Amino acid sequence: METAFERVVTVTVNPAIDCLFEVPGLTLGAHQVGRRLYRAPAGKGVNVARVLATLGHPPVATGFVGAAEMQAFEDSLASDGVQSQFLAVEGNTRENITLIDPRANTETHVRDIGFHVKRHDVDRLVRKLGLLAHARVLVVFSGSLPPGMEPSDLSTLIRECIGRGAAVAVDADGPLLREVRSNRLWAIKPNREELHAMIGRPLGSDDDLVREGRALCETVDNVLVSCGSAGGYLFTEDRGYIGQVELDSKDVVSTVGCGDALLAGFIAARLKGHDAGEAHRRALATATEAATRLLPGRVDPTRVTQLLKRAAVELLHGA
Q1: What is the crossing angle of helices 70-79 and 44-54, to 10°?
Q2: Start-to-end C-alpha separation, the chain
Q3: Which residues are CB-contacts of 58 (< 8 A; sequence separation ≥ 6)?
Q4: Partners of 236 in the beta sheet?
Q5: Is residue 1 in a domain?
Q6: Is 113 left (phi over 0), alpha (psi -120 to 50) or beta?
Q7: Number of H helices, E strands in the chain
Q8: For residue 97, which of 14, 110, 215, 278 is within the disulfide window of CB 3.0 to 4.6 Å?
């Protein structure tokens, strides 16, 4: 499928206000003293949008946001060079909390539920995407669904985009990916656990992962499987790749948003004309750079370039 897209649109139907606290010696059930490190508008699609803009490909960001937080999202995204076209809904945008314990080197994530989307809100988003999606546009759906939305609603949104001639990428949990896999997608980006949930069978070995990743390429042009510090895989119609970036664990600050940076890095590299293998290498370098940052959706392009020297991607045997 064509990768010379004229525009990228990110869709986040369940965004968040991300809060990160540093709590040394975190102990459940105890009174703790911590320090808030940041509080900022976020969400998986928002993170993808920010990284794309930083890498030189400012997208349009749409989806839902609580009316009270609309201005905060618009101001935050505008400062990053992202055009915000979110739709306001009743209720408050959820607040997600990440607790970092620097002593134990652990992260604890608490996910809020957030606003309830009504049927007319979904219809509004279908119409919005009907205006934004057309040939030579890549629409990226990222994240979970808010209360009130069903997996079938995501399929409806995807079909609207494909029907308009747009390409579609999806980064969601396993059950959602299973719901939309019948569509011809440009890319999906599960992690290992999400791939397991998507196919409904255990991945007992790396060989199992490779076999399933290749099988998915019957309907998906690019299958990116992230594996945390172990790097990740890329499968295309006729190739398979495995890659990793060397990074000392002490340099890892936060893993929140690394998968979003991986997808954004891959898209940006393809937009620049790099082949799949090189795009995978650049995606891994982007995700690794994101792991050294406190705020999700923030990368330093110069640092990404430096990390490319540590990034190794190999063609899988038999590809």
Answers
A1: 20
A2: 19
A3: 52, 81, 82, 83
A4: none
A5: no
A6: alpha
A7: 10, 15
A8: 110
**Number of domains the chain is built from:** 1
Q: Tell me which residue has tokens 């609580």.
A: 66
Examine residue 298 and state whether it is found in any structural domain, yes or no: yes
Q: Are 229 and 219 in contact (CB under 8 A)?
A: no
DSSP state for residue 138 in the 8-state scheme: E
Name the residues annotated as catalytic. 260
Note the pTM of the prediction, 2 decimals: 0.94
> How far are the Cα atoms of 123, 129, 182, 312, 315 from residue 48, in angstroms, in the given order?
24, 18, 24, 23, 26
Rounded-to-integer distance, Cα 50 and Cα 290, Å = 12
Helix (H) / strand (E) element for 179: namely helix 174-180
Structure tokens at 175: 């059950």
Domain harbouring 152, CATH code: 3.40.1190.20
Per-residue pLDDT tens over the stretch 104-146: 988 899 999 989 999 999 999 999 999 999 999 999 999 999 9
Tokens 């989307």 locate to 117
**For the segment 21-52, what is each residue's pLDDT rounded down to a tens digit?**
999 999 989 999 999 999 999 999 999 999 99
Q: What is the domain range of residue 81? A: 7-25+35-315
The DSSP element (H or E) to which 262 belongs, if any, is helix 258-271
